[in-house]
Structures are given as structure tokens and as C-alpha cells.
Backbone:
């Protein structure tokens, strides 16, 4: 299995480190040719505006949309969640959102950097809580019936799954805990 | 200051502060002096903007004392864009930093581009919730800033010159010494700490990990996509562009080209494509002819 990490901008290096730590070879994806090669894809945190524009500049937007429509397993964290959502409530004109998860998100919904935080997240079926790091994080404002909410914080969904797409508003790549990455690469 | 709320949410911790720097990697942070410039930067794909009253090239030309920007212009830029907004405080001027924190900026740059307020002390950055970036010309300076609480280091270069040579010197110095330290034995690390005038635990951490404990970006003199590619290939994790964009003849396409160069820095074909037809870059300055060397500020 070849796991790609979208390496246009953001915390792609940290995702690679976590994947390597759990024994999974990860490759950086910047071009359509590199995207064709991967069986799974991680879309990292970063600035969603910048990543969205770079998807267009590097000719990746359409090939990525096609692969997502074909059911490419994908993990999107923070900016990755924004790109995989169906709707960006306060998006700028032309913002890419691929609709892999039927959710509406608000960018920076948790506030500016002064309100960035970490908190323990209770994930359904997990024995211990997961350390969630939220950096200028997007808020999931609503999720459709097809979306499985795996974890919430104060009643707001923060970790969701729909089909082969998993999204979080926090950054598992910033935690010492690799359970979300393990679970992503092990799921059917 | 780090704080824990009733709901168990912890803000202002080192992890949260460093976390934002991690999210800016591979990106371009642009100096802007108006809300309109901030929009141009955001549209080009900047990951953050640095709000200031004058770009370094103008500060250098005008002379006099350069201070923190007017809060009104910082607020105007915060309202204009959704990406993070940074602002500069003078070295050692912790009250300017308090004001910037009250304005809710996302990052403070304790910057040698402004006139230093203290000739011996930098700001105690641990005392703040807002994260700080500081400049460094060598590894010792970088580790001293980290020991004071900086969560991001940028190599200083020589701001406002459009000349990449100092940025390259500083990056090579920092990264070269990191490489040497990883080869040192445990006894030699004591001497490294002494030579670098840096805390031993940080020197040991660098020796173990082969990198700084925080991200390292590059600033000072970047004015073309090729410059961005150069410093990224040398090991910078993101770039700050000060005067290089808005002192060029056609800022918007140049801004976009530098953004694409920072992502595709290893691909000369893409660098060739994005470098075409950008108009005149900012006029450059020879380092030997400078009256003031900004990089010498900081201790």
C-alpha cells in the first residue's frame, strides 16, 4: 500500500513522520503523476486558501476530484477538512471544496491564534482520550445524515467519517498519539 | 501565558504556538502595508501577511527610528483577510508586544528591521499567549531566542536589499553547525554550548534530532522565485518576502510565482515556467555599500 501526503503547503512533513513511525511508507504528492501512484491520501493542515490555489496551479484539482469520486481513501485534517467538506460557509470565491464529506464548515471558526488550544477528545469505542490540537481550526457547523460523527467536543463534531473519507478539525499529526493514522491506514 | 479553561481547553502552550508555525511550512509570508496589499497577498496564495507601515526597503531609505505599526492599520489588515496576520515589535520592547497581543495578532515578529528598544535584552516570550518569531544569523543566536520562548526562527538575511547573499550566509551557518553538532560526542557538546553561548539542553536536543526544536524559515533579500527555490533547497521550511513583492514592478504575478516556487522548489521546469515575464524585480543593493546592517541588531 502506498500512502500519499499532499505536499503543496502545510504540515505534510509531520504526517509523513507519523506514517513512517508506524511503519508505513509515505510519499509526497505535488503533481497529477504522483497522485496516480497512491492508494490512500492524507490532506494536511495548512492554509486552505493557499492549498486550494496551489491545487489549481499544479493541475491537481480535477484529478483529485476524480479520484475522490472513485472512493480514494482520504484523511483530511484542519485545512484538509475544509477541502473535503461539501460547503465552506465563509469561503472566498473560487475556494475548492470537494464534497467528500457532506458537512458545512466555517474557516477559523474556533477563532484566531490566541484561541488555538488543545483538549482531550473522547473517540467512540476508544479506551482512552485522544489529544486534539486545534490551530485556528475550522468548525463543523452541520453534518448530513450520511456522516458518521466519531468524536465531538462540547457537542460540536470534530472527527467524522463518510465512506472512505475521514476528517478532523484538529491536528493528529501534532500529537504524540498515532492512533488516528493507524486506524486510517488499517481501515478497509 | 498558557492557560487552562473550565472546559479543559489549554491555550498558549508551546505546542499550540509551534503548531501554527508548522501549518505555515512550505508557504510564503508577505509584508503588506495596506489592506489592499493584504488582499493581493491572500489572492496570490500567501499563508500569512506581516502588517507594517513601511516595508524594509523604505525603512532603510527613510532612516530614523522604526517602531511598531499604528494599531489602526493592523486592525484594517486583520479585517481585510482571513489568513494569519503577523506584526513586528522592536527587539526588547515588551510593551509593544503586549499591545500587539491585545490586538489579537496571530504571530509577533521581534524584529531587527525595527530600531531596537533594548541593547541587552530580548523580550521574555514565555510570558505571552501569542507566539513569537525571531531572526537569527547563526545557531547560537537561534537557540538563545528559542530559550527565550521563540516558537519559530527565521534566518535574518539583510532586509530591504533584494540581495539574497546574507540569507544564504545565515542559513548555511545555522544548518552547517547543526550538521556538525550531530557528529559531536557527548563531551564535545559542552564546548559547543559554550562556543554558541546557548543552553546545553537545547544543544543536546539539536544533536539528537538534527534540527531546531521549532520550524526555521528564511527572510531578508528574497525577491525572485529562484531566490525562494534557493533558500528552500538549502533547508528553509518557508519564506518571508518583505520588500521583494510590493517594490517590484508588478506585485500580483510575482507574489503568485513566489508562492508556486516555494511549493515546487525542487522542480527546475516549474521554476522556469513561473519565473517568466514577471517584470522588474525590486532594485537591489550591494551589502558593502550599506550604512546600516540590520542583521547586526540582536544579541
Residues:
Amino acid at each position: 500500500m502506498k500512502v500519499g501526503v499532499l505536499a503543496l503547503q502545510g504540515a505534510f512533513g509531520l504526517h509523513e513522520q507519523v506514517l513512517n513511525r508506524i511503519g508505513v511508507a509515505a510519499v509526497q504528492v505535488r503533481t497529477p503523476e504522483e497522485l496516480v501512484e497512491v492508494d490512500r491520501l492524507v490532506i494536511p493542515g495548512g492554509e486552505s486558501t493557499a492549498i486550494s490555489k496551489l491545487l489549481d496551479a499544479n493541475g491537481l484539482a480535477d484529478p483529485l476530484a476524480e479520484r475522490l469520486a472513485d472512493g480514494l481513501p482520504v484523511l483530511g485534517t484542519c485545512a484538509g477538512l475544509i477541502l473535503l467538506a461539501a460547503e465552506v460557509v465563509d469561503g472566498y470565491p473560487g475556494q475548492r471544496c470537494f464534497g467528500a464529506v457532506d458537512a458545512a464548515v466555517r474557516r477559523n471558526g474556533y477563532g484566531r491564534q490566541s484561541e488555538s488550544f488543545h483538549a482531550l477528545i473522547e473517540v467512540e469505542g476508544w479506551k482512552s482520550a485522544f489529544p486534539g490540537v486545534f490551530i485556528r481550526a475550522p468548525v463543523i457547523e452541520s453534518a448530513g445524515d450520511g456522516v458518521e460523527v466519531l468524536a465531538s467536543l462540547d457537542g460540536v463534531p470534530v472527527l467524522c467519517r463518510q465512506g472512505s473519507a475521514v476528517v478532523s478539525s484538529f491536528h493528529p499529526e501534532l500529537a504524540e498519539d498515532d492512533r488516528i493514522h493507524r486506524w486510517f491506514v488499517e481501515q478497509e | 501565558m498558557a492557560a487552562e479553561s473550565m472546559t479543559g481547553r489549554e491555550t498558549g502552550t508551546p505546542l499550540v504556538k509551534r503548531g501554527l508555525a508548522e501549518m505555515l511550512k512550505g508557504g510564503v509570508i508577505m509584508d503588506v502595508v495596506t489592506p489592499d496589499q493584504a488582499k493581493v497577498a491572500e489572492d496570490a496564495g500567501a499563508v500569512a501577511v506581516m502588517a507594517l507601515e513601511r516595508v524594509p526597503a523604505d525603512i532603510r531609505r527613510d532612516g530614523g527610528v522604526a517602531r511598531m505599526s499604528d494599531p489602526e492599520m493592523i486592525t484594517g489588515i486583520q479585517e481585510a483577510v482571513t489568513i494569519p496576520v503577523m506584526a513586528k515589535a522592536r527587539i526588547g520592547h515588551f510593551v509593544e508586544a503586549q499591545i500587539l497581543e491585545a490586538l489579537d495578532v496571530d504571530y509577533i515578529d521581534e524584529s531587527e528591521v525595527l530600531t531596537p528598544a533594548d541593547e541587552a535584552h530580548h523580550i521574555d516570550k514565555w510570558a505571552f499567549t501569542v507566539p513569537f518569531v525571531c531572526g537569527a544569523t547563526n545557531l547560537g543566536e537561534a537557540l538563545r531566542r528559542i530559550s527565550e520562548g521563540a516558537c519559530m526562527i527565521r534566518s535574518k538575511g539583510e532586509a530591504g536589499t533584494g540581495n539574497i547573499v546574507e540569507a544564504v550566509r545565515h542559513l548555511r551557518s545555522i544548518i552547517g553547525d547543526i550538521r556538525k553538532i550531530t557528529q559531536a560526542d557527548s563531551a564535545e557538546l559542552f564546548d559547543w554550548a559554550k562556543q554558541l553561548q546557548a543552553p546545553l539542553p537545547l544543544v543536546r536536543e539539536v544533536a539528537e534530532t538534527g534540527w531546531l526544536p521549532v520550524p526555521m524559515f528564511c527572510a531578508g533579500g528574497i525577491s525572485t522565485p529562484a531566490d525562494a527555490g534557493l533558500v528552500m533547497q538549502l533547508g528553509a521550511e518557508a519564506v518571508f518576502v518583505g520588500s521583494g513583492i510590493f517594490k517590484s514592478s508588478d506585485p500580483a504575478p510575482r507574489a503568485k510565482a513566489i508562492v508556486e516556487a516555494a511549493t515546487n522548489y525542487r522542480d527546475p521546469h516549474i521554476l522556469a515556467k513561473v519565473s517568466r515575464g514577471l517584470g522588474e524585480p525590486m532594485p537591489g543593493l550591494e551589502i558593502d555599500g550599506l550604512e546600516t546592517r540590520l542583521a547586526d541588531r540582536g544579541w
The longest strand of chain B covers residues 85-90. Chain B has a mean pLDDT of 95. The two ends of chain B are 24 Å apart (CA to CA). Chain B touches chain A at residues 5, 7-13, 15-16, 19-20, 22-27, 42, 44-48, 82-84, 101, 104-107, 129-131, 256, 259-260, 262-264, 267 (CB under 8 Å).
